[in-house]
Write the structure tokens for this entry.
Amino acid sequence: MTVDEWGRIGGSAQTVLSLTNRMLRVKVQAVDAVFKKGSSGVRFALYDADNRLIDAWSEDGNGRMFTELSAGTYYLEREGHSSKRCELTVRDEVGVQEWKIPIFTWKSAVVLVVAVLAVAGLVLAGGFVTKKRKL
């Protein structure tokens, strides 16, 4: 749009403009799969539907906010896991769209192993079996 020295827009004294005062906001965050808290140190890359790289970053635990994305389909890829692309859809809607990506960390892995071992120990010890005793 160009306004000339007489205040005309595109050579016209009047014109109709359509303005939108809204942006799509999308937050991508890695979260620990067990503890559901932000996880840091994970590297992500975001691609559009045409496989063009939008951004690549190292997660800090707080997530990454995008305000320049258009409605459509995107793909999130974790570094070193290119075969496991996550398809994400940006919708044209008000409010922040949050994508929480579950990540297994060493802490969550330890918790899962301990839980499995505890359950296995109960089963082997007969902890889940109730026996009737004669008095």
